[in-house]
Structure formats: C-alpha cells, structure tokens
Write a structure and sequence with these properties.
There is one protein chain. This protein is α/β, with parallel strands linked by helices. It is 30% helix and 19% strand. The chain is built from ten helices and 13 strands. The strands form three sheets. The protein has a five-stranded parallel sheet, sandwiched between helices. The longest helix is centred in the first third of the chain and has 13 residues, at 69-81. The radius of gyration is 24 Å and the shape is globular.
Length: 329
C-alpha cells in the first residue's frame, strides 16, 4: 500500500462507511440509500452486497470474503486515492463490529488526517442490538452491553473476563458472533460463566437473520441456551435479574416500580418525583454512614470492593443536593 494519501492532480476522493441496518430495504436509512447512489464503487462482504443488489446496478462492485476486512479497507483507500467515491458497506452499523475501525487503522497508517484529500463519512445504521431487541420486545430498556464471542482477533481470556464481569454486574447482554462452524465451544463457555452469577431460569432470546427472509426467533433460558439453534447470523440477548418474558415479549423493567405505583402514578412513601431514588447515591451514602457496620461487612452486602467502601466511610457526608434532575431517572 502506498503511504502517500492521494495522487497529484486528482479530484478529492471519498469513503462512505455505510451501515445497512438489518438488511431489509424498509430499514435502510435515506442517507445510506443516497450514499450508495452517490458512490462510484461499492465494496463489501459478498452477503452484504447481496442485501443491496438492486441499488448497485451499473456501479463498480468489489466483493470480499468474511475474513478480508483489511483488504476491503485497503481497496477503499486505493479507490479514494484515485478520486473515486466509495461506499464501504457493513450490515448493522459500520461503527459496531463493522468496517469503521479497520478503515481508520488503514488510513492512519497511510498518514491520513481529516484535512487530507480523502473525505470520510460514517453513515450509521441500526445494529443487531436494536433490531433484535425490537423483534422480541423491550429487553434493553435498562443498562446493557455487547460482547463478541469471536476469538479470531481477541484472546479468549479477555473475552472470558468481560463475560464474567458483566454477568456479575447484572447487565443485559447481547452476544455477537456467538457461534460458527468452527467456533462451537465459545457459547458453552459463555453460558458456564453466566451461570456462576445468574439464575438458570434467566430469560434469553435468540434472533437469527433479523428482518431477513429466514428470520427465526427463539425464547429460552440461560441453562438451556447452548442447546438452541445458534449460528453466525444469530444474536443472543441475555436478560438481567429483573427481565421477564410475558405474552411472547421479553421486557427489562426500567425501575419505575421502585419509585411509583405503576397503576396510579403516585410516588411511594419516602420517594419524590424528579429526585434521585431514596437508595440512589446520596441516600445510599447516608445509609452506609448510619449503618454502624464495617467496610468489610458493607462490601459483602453490596458486592463492592472493600477499599471503595472504606474510602466512602472516611469521607464526610456532603450537604443534600436540592437540584431537581433534568430528566426523570
């Protein structure tokens, strides 16, 4: 790859990192559609190109294999150096396990800066998190994270530490790249780590090929998760300790019942609308100081580091903050 950013006397090239969303035309954004129309060259994994086949007729189309991400980025860079407008397509969002990262790595290696002769635009699309959640209900309405089980580029101990940490921390978790023809044990190990911290009956939803012709949705539980039909086109959503499935919908409560009577909307005794929960930070700190318990006892009770609790107990309580929250928690 030539380290110079652009050839002399060429028009300014452009790389558009296009997120296609789940793949159905109905969920392709207007900007993504316009970017593909604007492009001279379309580059992408062969399956992603197939998703927008009707939009790329008459254009230069460069198809690459699944493991050729750097090749795609280099190809896009070389075409842009020639003054072409390139649409480098990813399913979902280009910045979520997509082509944005490797493209910037290639560009930076070549000495590119935002002021260079190649313009770069990232065009967001709905990731598997959003699309799969929409199909199964409302599983992501409280804190969540995503972890890829692919160990092609990430050491397994790193992945395992992340799995263990989020399982312990009670996040709702979306597992990307959960299983392939060669990688079959990773989902089993993920299940093993989660069962150290979560109930066996924790709800799990598995969505395969979301919004595509072979879409398949399965609800199961954590202890049976690894027995399900899971592949590279699947996303696995693991609920937290409050997630439930009712009437075929997976829902993670936001926590309104902690403060309000859901039927009447009235606040519970000791709670105030527009203010932090009584067991929010200020109330919790006051409870720590008033408990009379040691840092070690409180650390065990709240499953937090003892040195963190000890530091809090050593600090004087701040005056009550009377500011109203900008947005209800």
């Amino acid at each position: 790859m030539n380290d110079t950013v652009s050839a002399p006397n060429t028009p300014r090239g452009k790389i558009m990192l296009v997120g296609l969303g789940p793949g159905s035309n109905a969920h392709l954004t207007a900007r993504a559609r316009a970017a593909i129309a604007e492009a001279d060259t379309i580059i992408g994994y062969v399956t992603y190109i197939r998703l927008v086949a009707d939009l790329v007729v008459g254009k230069e189309v460069i198809k690459k294999s699944m493991t050729e991400e750097l090749d795609r980025a280099i190809e896009a860079f070389e075409r842009a150096r020639q003054g072409k407008k390139v649409a480098l397509v990813s399913s979902g969002d280009a910045g979520v396990y997509g082509m944005a990262g490797p493209t910037f790595e290639v560009l930076f290696q070549a000495g590119w800066t935002p002021d260079s002769d190649i313009e770069v635009e990232i065009i967001p699309g709905a990731s598997a998190l959003n699309t799969c959640a929409a199909l199964v209900g409302a599983p992501l309405t409280h804190d969540f994270c995503a972890i890829s089980l692919s160990d092609l580029l990430t050491p397994w101990p790193t992945i395992a530490r992340r799995l263990d940490a989020v399982a312990y921390s009670d996040f709702v978790v979306a597992l990307y790249n959960p299983k392939s023809g060669r990688r079959t044990r990773q989902i089993v190990e993920a299940q093993r780590l989660f069962l150290r911290h979560r109930r066996p009956d924790t709800p799990v939803a598995i969505v395969k090929s979301a919004y595509r012709p072979k879409q398949r949705i399965e609800f199961t539980t954590l202890d049976k998760m690894a027995e399900s039909d899971i592949g590279m086109l699947s996303t696995v959503l693991i609920g937290n300790s409050n997630t439930f499935i009712r009437h075929g919908l997976m829902v993670t409560p936001r926590g309104y019942r902690n403060k309000y009577d859901v039927e009447s909307g009235a606040t519970h005794d000791g709670e105030k609308a527009g203010r932090s929960l009584s067991t929010g930070l200020d109330g919790w700190l006051a409870g720590l100081h008033a408990s009379g318990h040691s840092a070690a006892e409180l650390a065990r009770e709240h499953r937090l580091p003892e040195d963190y609790i000890a530091a809090l107990l050593a600090e004087p309580l701040a005056a009550d903050d009377t500011q109203t929250d900008e947005m209800e928690a």
